[in-house]
Specification:
The chain has 1 helix and no strands. The protein is mainly α. Keywords: Membrane, Transmembrane, Transmembrane helix.
Length: about 35
């Protein structure tokens, strides 16, 4: 297996994980803000 392909795979995995974390934290903040009103 090529080292570049492995690096691209892990960079894509890191991007997906950060997207999921941003989505979950945004949803939590949105629900908290909506619950205050």
């Amino acid at each position: 297996m090529d080292l570049l392909a492995l690096e691209l795979f892990f960079v894509g995995l890191l991007g997906l994980a950060s997207l999921a974390i941003a989505f979950v934290s945004g949803t939590v903040v949105w629900n908290l803000y909506r619950g205050q009103r």
